[in-house]
Amino acid sequence: MEPEWRRQVADRLQAYRVRRHGGVAVGLQPTLPFESDSGSATKEADVPHAYSPPATAARAPHRRRPRTERVEISIPKHEVMYAAAGVHRSLAAQPGFGTALDVHFPVATLHQRRMAAMLDVGLLLFSYGGMLALFWALGGRIGFNKLDAMVTGTTLALFYAQYFALFTIFGGCTPGMMLCRLRVLSFDGGMPTSRQMAWRSFGYLVSAGTCFLGFLWALWDEDHLCWQDRISRTYLTPIEDLATSQSSAPAARES
Predict the structure, then answer these.
(1) Residue 173 gets which letter from DSSP?
(2) Are 198 and 192 in contact, with CB atoms under 8 Å apart?
(3) Most buried one in 25, 33, 125, 168, CB count within 10 A?
(4) The CA-based dihedral angle spanning residues 215, 216, 222, 224, taken in that order and rounded to the nearest 10 degrees
(5) Alpha-carbon dihedral of residues 88, 92, 95, 101, nearest 10 degrees?
(6) Taking residues 35-52, what's their average pLDDT?
(7) On the CB side of 129, how many CA atoms lie within 13 Å of its CA?
(8) Contact criterion met (CB below 8 Å) for 200 and 147
C-alpha cells in the first residue's frame, strides 16, 4: 500500500488531466519523481537492511610492564702472591692475637732474640748511666731515699719507652736487632707499616709493664712470639733467610 498522501496526490493529478484534456489521460507531463519511485521505495522500505556490525576499534597494543631482572655476579677470591715471601696467601687469612703463625720466613730463635734483648738492655743502661753521670757532673745529687728512687725509676721507664719508640718507629729495628742481624716483618711476609711499628713499640711497654711477662710469654707460645709480636702482628726473622728467599724467588720465576 502506498502512503495516503501519495495516493491522494495521484488521484487529484489524474482528475486534473482529465478535465484539462477532455477526458483523455494524455501523458503530456512526465511522471513525477515520487510516482515512479513510489513502488521501488515501498519495496525498499519493506526489505530490511542487512545489519553490519560496527568495526571493532583497534585494540591498543598491550604495554608490557617493565620487569626488573636481577643478575648475580660471583667474584672469586684471588690469592695474592707476595714477592718478598714467595708464597701464596689468601686475603682473608689474617692471623690474629691468638692464632698460629704461618709464613714462609722462619721466626728467629729464642737464643737470637735473647742476644738482641741483652744488647738493647746493655745499650739502654749505658746511655742512661751516661745521662746520670752528666747530671751528676752538672751539680745534681741523687740520694738513697724513697723520693730519689721513685724519680730514678720513673726516668728509667721514660728512657726505656723513648728508646724503643724511636728506634722501632723511625729505624724499623733496635740497635740490638741490627747487631744480631734480625729484621721485623709482618705476618703476611711483607714489610710492616708505620702503624704496625707504633703498635709494636706500645707492645714493648705492655710487656715490660707486666713485670716482663710479655717477654716470658715466648716460652709458652706455640710460635715463640711475645706480646709485642701478637699485638702488632709482626715478628723477627734472620736477615740471612730473608736474603736467601729474595734471591731464590727470581730464579724460581725464570725457571
Answers:
(1) S
(2) no
(3) 168
(4) 50
(5) -20
(6) 49
(7) 6
(8) no
Place of cell 478535465: 19
For helices 194-209 and 146-169, angle between their N-to-C axes, nearest 10 degrees: 150
C-alpha cell at 142: 741523687
Half-sphere exposure of 32 toward its Cβ, with a 13 Å CA cutoff?
9
Q: Is the pLDDT of residue 11 over 80?
A: yes
Return the closest-CA partner of residue 112 out of 227, 224, 192, 33: 224
- pLDDT at residue 225 is higher than 50: yes
Grid cell in block for residue 131: 745521662
Query: And the C-alpha cell for 32?
Result: 513525477
Classify residue 79 by its DSSP letter.
P
The answer to whether the beta carbons of residues 101 and 159 sit under 8 Å apart is: no
pLDDT band at 84 (very low <50, low <70, confident <90, very high): very low
The string of pLDDT tens digits covering residues 119-150 is 999 999 999 989 888 888 888 777 788 888 89
Beta-bridge mates of residue 238:
182
pLDDT class of 27 with cuts at 50, 70, 90:
low
Pairwise CA distance, residues 165 & 181, whole Å:
19
Question: pTM of the full predicted structure?
Answer: 0.55
Burial of 163 (C-beta count, 10 Å sphere; 0-12/13-18/19+): buried
- Cα 127 from Cα 119, distance rounded (Å): 12
